[in-house]
From TrEMBL:
Molecular function per GO: RNA binding; tRNA pseudouridine(55) synthase activity
Location of the active site: 42
Superkingdom as given in the UniProt entry: Bacteria
Residue ranges annotated for the tRNA pseudouridylate synthase B C-terminal domain, each copy included: 187-230
Catalytic activity: uridine(55) in tRNA = pseudouridine(55) in tRNA
Domain spans labelled Pseudouridine synthase II N-terminal: 27-186
Protein name: tRNA pseudouridine synthase B
Name of the encoding gene: truB
Database matches in PANTHER family: PSEUDOURIDYLATE SYNTHASE TRUB1, TRNA-PSEUDOURIDINE SYNTHASE
Organism taxonomic ancestry: Bacteria, Bacillati, Actinomycetota, Actinomycetes, Propionibacteriales
Domain (tRNA pseudouridine synthase II TruB subfamily 2 C-terminal): residue spans on this chain: 242-295
EC number: 5.4.99.25
Described purpose of this protein according to its UniProt entry: Responsible for synthesis of pseudouridine from uracil-55 in the psi GC loop of transfer RNAs.
Length: 296
């Protein structure tokens, strides 16, 4: 069987499907089991899910270090077990407390999440605790306490702030867009904003708009992929995601066997052969450019 072309597929994930479910469908389309994704999306969430095919799966761990973009709706006044709309309601705020919180207070609290913050991930995250996913431990009835992690919210823009009634409960719905580092949980921002306002909070909608340089304009639905399956070639994917350096034949030969180079690099860099073939990711370390991952 011919090995499928290595590269990336950018999917616009639908609601109600797990990231693993998307991987399973693309495996069938690609004709290989060597398919992985660059960062899980919850079943409720939609939007950009970057998949690697063949050798490109080795690129995914580096893509996960890039920033991501989201559009979300936060509901203030109700807290849930999962910090999103799929969980069970744990608390609802008193109508008087909801009425006492004005739009300026909501905007002020959310502005406080911009920058480097210490964030405790939601208990139903995919983080492993002693080799087992946190969400699985919660499903098995275990108490899960995760440690805070340092994450960065580069930008958080508050859009519409509106009062509503949901299932007979007075709430405040807030539309936000944000850019953040990988590992940031938007559900945790909703939870923590609700706690800061003493109302409780959770997400009712989440759409990932970008993973690094890959956004919704590049994303295709599963239906579109089924009609016309196509892969972004590995070399094009690397040039889009990382600073690039084109090598001469001597340098390319050294990189093909993973040798260090005496060339200046500003950070993690994609290196290319004279013919345009993507060879490796290198980084500056110990006074030289050294291999992080070799793809040739």
């Amino acid at each position: 069987m011919t090995e499928p072309a290595a590269g990336l597929v950018v999917v616009d994930k639908p609601a109600g499907l797990t990231s693993h479910g998307v991987v399973a469908r693309v495996r069938r389309l690609a004709g290989t089991r060597k398919v992985g994704h660059a960062g899980t999306l919850d079943p409720m969430a939609t939007g950009v899910l970057v998949l690697g095919i063949g050798r490109a799966t080795r690129l995914l761990g580096h893509l996960m270090l890039t920033e991501k973009g989201y559009a979300a709706t936060i509901r203030l006044g109700v807290a849930t077990t999962t910090d999103d709309a799929e969980g069970e309601v744990t608390t609802t705020a008193d109508p008087g407390a909801v009425a006492a919180v004005d739009e300026a207070a909501v905007r002020s609290v959310l502005a406080g999440f911009v920058g480097e913050i210490d964030q405790v991930p939601t208990a139903v995250s995919a983080i492993k605790v002693d080799g087992k996913r946190a969400y699985q431990r919660v499903r098995d009835g275990e108490e899960v306490a995760l440690s805070a992690r340092r994450v960065t919210v580069h930008e958080l823009v508050v859009g519409d702030v509106r009062r509503a009634t949901a299932d007979g409960v007075d709430v405040i719905d807030v539309d936000v867009t944000l850019r953040c580092s990988s590992g940031t949980y938007v559900r945790a921002i909703a939870r923590d904003a609700g706690a800061a306002l003493r109302l409780g909070g959770h997400l009712t909608a989440l759409r990932r708009t970008a993973v690094g340089p890959y956004g919704l304009p590049e994303a295709r639905t599963l239906e579109q992929l089924g009609e016309s399956y196509a892969v972004l070639p590995l070399a094009d994917a690397a040039r889009a995601a990382f600073p690039a350096r084109d090598l001469d034949p001597r340098e390319a030969g050294a990189v093909r066997v993973g040798r260090a180079l005496d060339v200046p690099l500003d950070g993690l860099t994609a290196l290319f052969a004279p013919d345009g073939d993507f060879l490796a990711l290198y980084e500056p370390r110990d006074g030289a450019a050294r291999a992080v991952a070799v793809f040739c």
